[in-house]
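Q: what sequence does this backbone want?
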């Protein structure tokens, strides 16, 4: 147990009541499963990643694609990620033939999200078992037992992670960002458990670092792995680093060497520093405020209440390790152009730091969290239900009018299955609120029950009641179907200026064979498609690529719900066959 002079955690055994495992597992499943089935890949990273996976899964025959240098529309992947695409391609290859392709990929990536949640729980548990994190010893006994205390803290950390607003959408897309999140969390788990389960921790560290490198972040793997290992070794609270910890550092150094060598061999190093964003402090602050809510206020509270241990922070692994991961993730986000996908990696460490605020929260603060959460998520759920009811019945009229304006062409659908699931989720939310307002023994994780439950409720409602609308708004399918209906029966189409996501959408949804437009794209060249699709932003460079007399403007097609994404459709002129290339 810790000394009371620097430790603010005064916790009795009665305050570490165990969260029922069935309740925790049910919450995790309710968070992970919605959005896996019944939807297309979304714009734009989700669709681009799916296109690369599809190319790899079908990379047999004369048009095979290299698994070590995957390309889409003839362009290499700028993120230099391999393993995320391999996982998706393997999922496509082993899935039954009648199984929807996006669903098989989403199920594989649901495993990565599950790995993130499990690794976070066990990482927080290991840090809570360290001597500096344990609560104060009572004079006459009755303090929380170490294992029970660590379990309660881990439950709170997992609930805090699920409650983070920034996790919902990005963790349900099949992109390299989710793979990086899973492997960085696995590395976090490994470093937290170095002194407890050494062999399992070293194996996990090797997998985490190699997984990060193969997911497009080799530099992040080296910095997190080596820095974290040094911090954990220095946290032994001894004047010299023990021999076992020196051996652990040696192993991590070996993993760093192997990771760097692998990244160099496969050409995975990509340095993308966005210097123009380095001084956008306000934008970074806004992103942090909403993306990591509600974990960041609790993390700040942790630093304040445990401030005496910050004087020798390396001797407090439950503070130093999360702070290291947070600082590296925020720095990476800043250097990469304030990308929310890069900031995704901060959430497990932020939730870990937030969990150590729970033993120090005053009753008034806990009550404020409950009331704010109750109002925020109940209002969100009510809005989702009102808009859905308006789309189905037209009452009230204004929400349906707004939907028709924002998503022209969308036809509402009704599903008994999805409606019943949404109704049951809302009922469970009401029961959770009733339980939280009841008089029963307090538990450390109680303050995170409503935030996690509310975040899960709103995500589940959106992915059931609003799923057809969200899929229509974020999918390329409506655009592709509209263009296909104009072209009629055709399989060969020239393209110019399409993004990789747009190209993948036309190949998947339209079942089209896209041929790049070149100066020789004429009948005598052997590649002559009757149609040409061009992104509207690339029409200015089109005359440099082909003789415009060969093509006749046919239509300009706008993607529903997006005023900034048009496709210009050209048809080959009847006189084109008479023009010499």
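A:
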């Amino acid at each position: 147990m810790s000394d009371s002079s620097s430790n603010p955690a005064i916790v009795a055994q009665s305050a570490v009541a165990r969260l029922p495992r069935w309740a925790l597992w049910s919450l995790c499943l309710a968070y992970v499963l919605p959005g896996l089935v019944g939807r297309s890949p979304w714009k734009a990273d989700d669709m681009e990643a799916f296109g690369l996976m599809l190319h790899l899964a079908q990379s047999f025959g004369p048009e095979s694609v290299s698994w070590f240098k995957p390309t889409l529309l003839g362009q290499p992947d700028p993120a230099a990620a391999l393993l995320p695409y391999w996982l998706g391609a393997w999922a496509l290859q082993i899935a039954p033939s009648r199984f929807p392709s996006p669903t098989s990929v989403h199920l594989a990536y649901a495993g990565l999200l599950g790995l993130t949640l499990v690794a976070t729980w066990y990482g927080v548990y290991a840090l809570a078992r360290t001597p500096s994190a344990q609560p104060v010893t009572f004079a006459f006994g009755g303090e929380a037992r170490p294992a029970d205390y660590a379990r309660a803290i881990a439950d709170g950390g997992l609930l805090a992670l699920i409650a983070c607003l920034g996790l919902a959408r990005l963790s349900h897309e099949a992109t390299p960002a989710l793979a990086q999140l899973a492997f960085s969390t696995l590395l976090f788990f490994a470093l937290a458990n170095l002194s407890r389960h050494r062999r399992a921790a070293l194996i996990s560290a090797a997998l985490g670092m190699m997984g990060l490198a193969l997911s497009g972040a080799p530099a992040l793997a080296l910095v997190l792995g080596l820095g974290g290992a040094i911090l954990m070794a220095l946290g032994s609270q001894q004047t010299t680093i023990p021999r076992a910890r020196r051996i652990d550092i040696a192993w991590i150094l070996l993993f760093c060497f192997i990771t760097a060598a692998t990244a160099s061999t496969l050409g995975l190093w990509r340095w993308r520093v966005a210097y123009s964003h380095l001084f956008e402090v306000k934008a970074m602050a806004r992103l942090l405020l909403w993306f990591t809510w509600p974990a960041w206020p609790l993390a700040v509270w942790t630093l304040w209440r445990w401030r005496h241990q910050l004087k020798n922070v390396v001797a407090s692994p439950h503070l130093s390790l999360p702070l290291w991961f947070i600082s590296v993730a925020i720095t990476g986000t800043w250097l990469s152009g304030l990308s929310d996908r890069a900031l995704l990696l901060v959430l497990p460490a932020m939730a870990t730091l937030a969990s150590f605020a729970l033993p120090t929260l005053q009753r008034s603060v806990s009550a404020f969290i409950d009331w704010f959460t109750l109002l925020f998520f109940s209002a969100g759920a009510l809005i989702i239900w009102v808009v859905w009811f308006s789309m189905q019945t037209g009452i009230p009229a204004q929400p349906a009018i707004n939907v028709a304006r924002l998503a022209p062409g969308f036809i509402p659908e009704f599903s008994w299955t999805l409606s019943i699931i949404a109704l049951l989720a809302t009922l469970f939310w009401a029961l959770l609120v009733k339980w939280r307002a009841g008089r029963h023994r307090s538990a450390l994780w109680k303050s995170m029950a409503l935030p996690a439950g509310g975040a899960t409720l709103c995500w589940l409602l959106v992915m059931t009641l609003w799923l057809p609308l969200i899929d229509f708004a974020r999918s390329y399918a409506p655009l592709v179907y509209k263009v296909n209906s104009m072209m009629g029966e055709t399989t060969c189409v020239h393209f110019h200026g399409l993004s990789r996501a747009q190209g993948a959408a036309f190949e998947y949804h339209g079942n089209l064979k896209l041929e790049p437009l070149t100066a020789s794209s004429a009948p005598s060249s052997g590649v002559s498609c009757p149609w040409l699709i061009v992104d509207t932003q690339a029409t200015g460079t089109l005359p440099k690529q082909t003789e415009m007399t060969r093509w006749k403007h046919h239509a300009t097609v706008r993607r529903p719900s997006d005023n900034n994404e048009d496709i210009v459709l050209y048809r080959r002129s009847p006189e084109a066959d008479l023009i010499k290339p």
